[in-house]
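Dear colleague,

Thank you for sharing your sequence with our group. We've completed the structure prediction you requested, and as agreed, I am returning the results in plain text so they can be pasted directly into your records. Please verify that the sequence below matches your submission; if there's any discrepancy, let me know and we will rerun it promptly.
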Amino acid sequence: MPNIATVFKAEIQRLARKEVKVPSRRLHQSTVSLKRTIAAIRKRVTALEKATHRLVIQAGKFQGRPVTEEGESDVKRRFSAKGVRSLRRRLKVSQAEFAKLLGVSAQAVYLWEGKSGPLALRQETRKALANLRGLGRREIKKMLEGTPAAPKGKPGPKPKGKKGRKRGRKPRAKK
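Please find the predicted structure tokens below.
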């Protein structure tokens, strides 16, 4: 016959488990509902951040210049030869006109378009390129009409060099 103390101890444990089960079930239910609420809030925050990002980009396009989330001009973008070439072709300008808009030489534009990979550009050139990205053909044509053209006509006097024998064949000695 079992000892009365062990039976009594087993009965106390059973009753204790039963009493603890009811409050812990309520706690479990409230924990599950809180986790669901947190997940829903996270989804909503993500959706709002995406919408905000889209609006910031649209605001930058509306103003005609690229804008980061902080509202500053984005001059830390990477520029590649392919991107410069496609931008120039989209704007339908020559390399010389494109160079005039950027404040560089036509030779520099030619060299950029011939390279592969990212371009190492000066800060001012990056800003100018970033501003050109947001503009259309009409704005570019107006900008080109407003910039002074390179002086054409007769070149000035040539610089005088050393006078002396011309390079080439040596003169023959007379006999």
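Summary note from our side: The radius of gyration is 38 Å.

Kind regards,
the structure core
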